[in-house]
Write a structure and sequence with these properties.
The protein has one domain. The protein is built from seven helices and no strands. About 75% of the residues lie in helices and about 0% in strands.
Length: about 250
């Protein structure tokens, strides 16, 4: 739920950034046209100026240019800030997804520890209750956004393989725990702990990678090409008027 809302907020900010950048591009175009007309008519008599430009005094034209420049600078600055904020939201969503992935795994590990501790207990009801909470632990972030953004990383794929291996062992124990000897339970517990350490390490490495990306992007500024602003899947938000402007 949190990740979904973060993604919605990030998408909304991206739309706003594109609109602000489009406004900045429009103001830049007006500035250039006004400057061009001003330079073309410098020194000419007011009556010879084309259009209605002669109706505006030189001081007023300078003031108008300054106002447009201020508007352009403000819009660009706000767009830069919102772009960085939207970028941070995307990375915060990824970090939240990784935290949920790790937390579900840790909760599963603690439940399995209880199952292994009570494996030779004669209270079948207690054992059944402990095993009943072991259900599919598919992670929406990992299977969705995480896979789209980080599936090229070996550590990301390794984390998925380790999780699948851990869950398979958990299911095996949950089904056969009543028939296992103390030695078999101890061996399974050792294997689970080893896989747990490897998975925790992989998730930690992924978190550090995402944090480095967020830190690197925090020093950047908004790209001036509108296409760059659009996240994958949001290409339909592109403004035709914005495309091609610099």
């Amino acid at each position: 739920m949190v990740c979904s809302r973060l993604e919605d907020a990030g998408t909304g900010l991206e739309i706003l950034v594109v609109q602000l950048q489009d406004a900045a591009n429009r103001s830049r175009l007006v500035i250039r046209r006004t400057e061009k007309k001003f330079l073309q008519n410098r020194g000419k008599e007011p009556g010879h100026a084309p259009g209605d430009l002669h109706l505006i005094s030189t001081a007023r034209r300078h003031s108008l240019l300054r106002s447009f420049c201020d508007l352009h600078d403000t819009a660009s600055s706000v767009a830069d800030t919102l772009y960085q904020f939207a970028t941070h939201l995307r990375y915060v969503e990824d970090l939240s997804g990784l935290s949920a992935f790790a937390m579900k795994h840790l909760l599963l590990r603690e439940r399995m520890n209880m199952v292994l501790i009570h494996g030779d207990d004669t209270d079948a009801e207690l054992l059944s209750r402990l095993c009943s909470g072991i259900v599919s632990l598919s992670n929406p972030w990992y299977e969705g956004r995480g896979r789209k953004r980080y599936s090229h990383l070996p550590v990301f794929r390794a984390a998925g393989e380790l999780h699948a291996r851990y869950y398979a062992a958990v299911q095996r124990i949950a089904v056969n725990v009543k028939n296992m000897t103390p030695g078999e339970l101890a061996a399974e517990r050792t294997g689970l702990e080893r896989t747990c350490e490897q998975l925790t390490s992989a998730i930690g490495e992924l978190r550090r990678y995402v944090e480095r990306l967020m830190e690197a992007d925090s020093d950047g500024r908004l790209p001036r090409k509108c296409d760059v602003l659009l996240a994958p899947g949001n290409e339909n938000l592109r403004s035709d008027k914005c495309a091609g402007r610099t």
